[in-house]
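Standup notes, structure subgroup. Blocker cleared on the shikimate-3-phosphate input:
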Amino acid sequence: MILIGFMGSGKTTIADALGERMDLPVIDLDEEVVKLAGREIPRIFEEEGEAGFREKEFEALSRTSRTSGIIATGGGVVTYGRSYDFLKNTEQPVIYLHADFETLYRRIEGDENRPLVKSRDQVKALYEGRIEKYRAVADHEMDASLQVNEVVSGILEIKS
Ligand code: S3P
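Run returned:
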């Protein structure tokens, strides 16, 4: 199962909770990219730009096709053609965690570990440009403004 959604939608938290409930390993793509690069995300952006980061993110994503775990992606994964195509074509269920902009922005505002969180207007433009991409690759959409246990129960219901 692959979780997608904007920054702050709770992909990592929900993936951890699902992994525990379903007794499956959890793979966090941001962590995989950091391991691959041997550097933290802001440094990858500084040294290689967003394009360098996206290529590594695709590499990490494509490796997950050999696992049966719960995969938490980074919020921008749908903006890169190769990753978008991977998500569109994967056999694994892709779940989009959707929430309104205000809810998400409150959760991510001022986070220095997310290089794309700059001004509110810039973040809003990213959010608006991405929604249709998340929807285009997802098999299911969940309301990510709910409590973690409610989102998890909703996803488990889809699965059963
Ligand atoms: C990004 C989201 C981040 C991380 C990087 C870029 C984005 O992941 O991959 O900072 O473009 O939205 P989270 O969605 O886990 O914050």
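Discussed briefly. The chain has a mean pLDDT of 96.
Next: hand off to the docking folks.
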